[in-house]
Amino acid sequence: MEGSPSIELRGVDKEYRRAEFVVPVLSDLDLTVAEGEFLALMGPSGSGKSTLLNLVAGLDTATRGEVLVHGRNLGNLSEAEITRWRADNVGFIFQTYNLIPVLTAFENVELPLLLTKLSRKKRRENVKTALRIVGLEGRENHTPRQLSGGQEQRVAIARAIATDPYLLVADEPTGDLDRATAGEILDLLELLNREFQKTIVMVTHDPLAARRAHRVLYLDKGRLVDDVTDETSISAAS
Amino acid sequence: MKYFTYILRNARRNPVRTGLTIASTSICLFLMMILLSFFAMSAEVASASRIFNRIVTMNANGFAGMLPVARVRQIAAMDGVVAATPFQWYGGKYHDEVMPFAQFGVDADVVFDIIDEFTVPPDQLADFKANRKGAVIGRKLAKDRNLKVGDSLPLKGDIYPVDLDLVVSGIYDGPNNRDLRMCLFHFEYLDEALKQTAMAGSGGSLTTEAARRSGNAGSIFVKCRSAEMMTDLCRRIDDEYRSTEFPTRTQTEEAFGQMFEEMMGDLKNTVYWIGAAVVVSLLFVAGNAMAMSMRERTSEVAVLKAIGFNKGLVLFLVLTEAVLVAGLGGAIGALGCKFLCDFVDVARFSGGFLPFFYVPWNTALLGLGVSLFVGFASGLVPAVLAANSSVIDGLRKVV
Amino acid sequence: MIPFKYNIRNLRARWKTTLMTVAGTALLVCSSCVLFGLVDGLEHSLTVSGDPLDLIILRKGASNEVTGGFESKKADELLELNGIQRDEDGPVAAKELLNIAMAERLDGTHNNLIIRGVQPASRKLRPDFQIVAGRDLEPGKGECVVSRNLSRFYKGARVGGILDLGEKEKYRVVGVFTAGGSAAESEVWADLKDVERNTGRDGSVSCVQIRAAGLADMDQLQKTIEDSAQFKLSAIPEATYFENQSKSSLFLKGAGTLIAVLLTFGAMFAAANTMFSAVKSRTREIGTMRALGFSQRDVLISFLGESLLLSLLGGALGLLATLPLSFLTIETSNFNTFSSVTINFRFGPMVMAVALIMTVVMGLFGGMLPALRAVRLEVVSALREL
Description:
Helix content of chain C: 40-55%
Strand content of chain A: 25-35%
Shape of chain A: globular
Structural class of chain C: alpha+beta
Number of helices of chain A: 8
Helix content of chain A: 25-40%
Structural class of chain A: alpha/beta
Oligomer: heterotrimer
Number of helices of chain C: 12
Largest sheet of chain A: 6 strands, mixed
Distance between the termini of chain C: 27 Å
Radius of gyration of chain C: 29 Å
Order of helices and strands of chain C: HHEEHEEEEEEHEEEHEEHEHHHHEEHH
Number of domains of chain C: 2
């Protein structure tokens, strides 16, 4: 997975202000993520891992420092531009799936495609492809309530890849699933990384999940404290 | 359009809430239609009567004043006049009813040439003209009181000290939004009866002594040859009688109708204020429903924004939902009321007070517009809040 | 019983929703109260107009004094009858002649006014007749007094003004009167002879008003007048007469009731909407309470109580908002006589009853279904919620 650095954080600080209090969440972070890399972020509660994920995904802006994706400084983008950027470049996977309960699986997956200029027919094709990749064709017209947890997460993943974004961002994707189902989901993520070259940044508590990644970063109190590159995973991929 | 599915589904998300909001909106709009139509329809009828080129002459001092019946002939002879008839309000009692229906003494030979929006079968009209005690009644009046041609129609005098024993000669028909509840009889019948009592000398009343004696036309309805002649004729008639004992006031039929509305005075304003209060109340009710709905959807909105739905789009989606729900309620209430009044003769239940009742189209459309506005205004704040909500806060896991 | 403060706290916690619901329902209650306050005002003025000892004499068969006139000679005879109350000025009885004439309002529009030609005793025959500005009229001088209500709406209807009712009818206004809220407060009073002259109706009167010396005398007078073949008159007890007049306000009452019913439904739906949402957001709490041992009935009563409290707030606010309107007077037309009638808004038992009924209905019926839904929740599934 040698590749040009696609995500770079340089000297990033992130603070929250509450009245006169300044709460530092991330301090002086430097990080590089290569194209097509599968990265896991671990750390205790409050370590800032979710915040780091938000920065990478363009959901939040750094207080100090730079966040560059494909050379583009996200901090320079306006609100509208960064929203557009997210639509084109990022797919989201959440712990609680966050599917729209009133829409069917098909319609949920179609949602990000509505933001594109694709015709109805093309959108339909993309949705079907995405659902096929995650193994859920035949369940298009089910609503989230009619699906199991694992199936819901698959729909969420299908939604995340529907527009073929370059980056997938996952926040505790297996947190609500049992061991067996979690394994299936992680298989899927690995597949997406391996076969479709998706760059994946995943926050997780679960060491078994982290083991699937190429690299695991540990955060504590807003700082990177460890950087474990799993040699075994790397050689398996190349 | 492509977001329609999402918007519709969201509205169906909580069917009870959406249903109740629609119900509230439709009831309030239904009420608004009733309140506004009362004034709007008289305005519409008044302006619709313009095409008939009719003017109305009455005593300048008010209804109570006398209008010598000889003037009917004089006016009919004027240039530009097609025909003229007295329209003398009799105001008699029918059995024990509290509110009398409209009863007018008219010139049977010409009256239906003047009020020509109404039709009478020719044989009935001939019978009416020939029979001095005959009367022609409106279709709805006949239906209300179960009267057929040939039935007797006894009226007891209230304003005038004479009773009338009428017989139904015919039934006139016309469009539903005109007065189909009048009773027209021969002016001469009442006049003759009054002459006899006047000779017996049974005293005066509100109207001048002379008025209560025979020979009072009450008011005169005149059909003019063309619209241009109307203003001129009004002036000429009033000029002619200005310095007599009974000066006249002549105006177009439209102005005559407006005169009644003017008399209503503050009642109109009161009704409009209540309508406004109802609309404001709706704003609160619909706004509350939308706010409650959005409060339950904060994480969902955050997900949309994460995926890449920008502020403007989120605003649009929420607003459209609010407008759709309110608009549906408005359509049901406003159009529902209109169609109800079109198909059911609701005036029947007004106890003789209203000859007809319907909702004019522009009132119904106004109602629809109001409901769309309510949807927009009530959805605005929740929409703006949703559009500006923080994505991160919305995504934060509920502990 | 679930303590009531649980409901109060919840209403406070969801204060935005509570506030909006209260505002919405209050406006609807207020609208109904305004309508009924006006209806009550109209009816009240008719009720107080009727003194139990007074008789109105009209032409036989007439239903209204505006159109119920007869010869002045007969009227004179009536004034001499036995059984009429007498005081130091003579019999408490008066001939009166009514005229209806077109007058201009201050805003330029027109309406018909009742001009009542009166005799001195007429004042005693109205409840609490008082001159509140200027002075009373002197006979034969073309003067008139106007009611305080009319002085607020019509051009020239103030002390020193001229009431212009047409070429031959102009009166100088010398005073403003009130009459205990009775029907006279929609009228202009002038001297009987002046009105006779101006309208060319010497020799006739519209009615005669008589106060009997006692109830037995009143019955006697009524019989004498009605049975007399030469008179051909009817003697109607004033209370009955005004009661009959109020029958024509039945339409207003009916319309007002229809409107109030619709408004109540609207308010009911609004309250129900809020309560449904309240139940939905508290399913876990409800499950917990049930698990703790509170019965289904307790939960039902609790939510019904909350719904009633919510409605009470709306109803009370709506009622209070009507309070400042107590000074409202509107001027419109009496559909019987097509003449001006002024209605004083009356904040009385009718208004309060309307507010109360609306409150109870929207609280009880609006809250019933949500409360039932709260009760039907299974304990376990409620606890497992979310």
